[in-house]
Write a structure and sequence with these properties.
By secondary structure, the chain is of the alpha/beta class. About 40% of the residues lie in helices and about 15% in strands. It has 6 helices and 6 strands, in the order βαβαβααβααββ. Strands 3-2-4-1-5-6 form a 6-stranded mixed sheet, with helices on both faces. β5 and β6 (about 190-195) form a beta hairpin. α1 crosses α2 (about 60-75) and α4 (about 125-140) packs across α5.
C-alpha cells in the first residue's frame, strides 16, 4: 500500500508499545505496561515531538493504549482508539513457557504468511487489516503527521509490505518501545529507532 498517485506528502509514525507486564493468568492482549515500560514510553516521547504529530491513534490493547497516553501527555494530544491497530489475533493460543518456543511459533507465522498457524489470523490477513486502518486514518484526517501506537508483529508486517525489508528480521530487531518514521505516500523509512536509550534508573 503506497498511496494514490498525487497524494500530498505526509509523515507517519509507527510506535511499538513499551514493555508490558507478563501476566500468565491473562491473555497477552489484556496485559498492561510494566513500570519499566512506563519509563520507556516517557523516554521516546520527546524523540517523537520533533516530528510534530497532529494525531495520536492507538490500539485498544492496554499496553498500547497506556503507551499512547504517556506519549499524549508529552505531545499534548488526546488518544484516539482504532481497533484495527490490534496485534495479530492469537485468541486461544496458550502461554508459551519459554521465549524460544514463542519465537519459534512467531517465526512460523512469518514464514507461512497465508496460513493461520498461530491463532485466528494469518500474517497476510493481519497486515491487510492493519493497512486498511492506517489508510482509513489518512483518508479521514487532514494532519500532515499521524502517529500510531501498535504492536510488534503487525508493525513489522506493515513495514515489510512497504519497503525492501524482511518482516521477520524487523520483528526480531524491534524492542519495546521502538518507532519508525515514514514518508508518505512513498513509504520510505526516514528514521528507525529500534532500541532507545534506557531510562535512567532511580538513584
Amino acid at each position: 500500500m503506497n498511496g494514490e498517485a498525487g497524494e500530498r506528502p505526509r509523515t507517519l509514525i509507527l510506535v511499538r508499545h513499551a514493555k508490558s507486564r507478563v501476566e500468565r493468568a491473562r491473555p497477552p492482549d489484556e496485559w498492561s505496561l510494566s513500570p519499566a515500560g512506563e519509563r520507556g514510553a516517557a523516554v521516546i516521547a520527546p524523540m517523537l515531538e520533533r516530528h510534530r504529530p497532529g494525531r495520536l491513534i492507538a490500539s485498544p490493547e492496554p499496553k498500547a493504549r497506556q503507551t499512547a497516553e504517556i506519549l499524549g501527555r508529552c505531545l499534548d494530544l488526546d488518544v484516539e482508539i482504532a481497533n484495527g491497530l490490534r496485534e495479530h489475533d492469537r485468541t486461544g493460543v496458550p502461554f508459551f513457557e519459554t521465549q524460544e518456543e514463542f519465537e519459534r511459533r512467531v517465526t512460523e507465522l512469518f514464514e507461512r504468511p497465508t496460513e493461520r498457524v498461530l491463532g485466528r489470523e494469518s500474517a497476510v490477513e493481519a497486515c491487510r487489516r492493519f493497512s486498511a486502518t492506517v489508510q482509513g486514518a489518512l483518508d479521514s484526517r487532514p494532519e500532515a503527521c499521524l502517529a500510531f501506537v501498535t504492536h510488534g508483529t503487525v508493525m513489522s508486517l506493515f513495514l515489510g509490505s512497504l519497503a525492501t525489508l524482511e518482516p521477520l528480521g524487523m520483528w526480531r530487531r524491534l524492542c519495546m518501545p521502538a518507532y519508525a518514521v515514514l514518508e508518505w505516500p512513498s513509504g520510505r523509512i526516514i528514521e528507525l529507532v529500534s532500541e532507545p536509550a534506557p531510562p535512567p534508573t532511580d538513584g
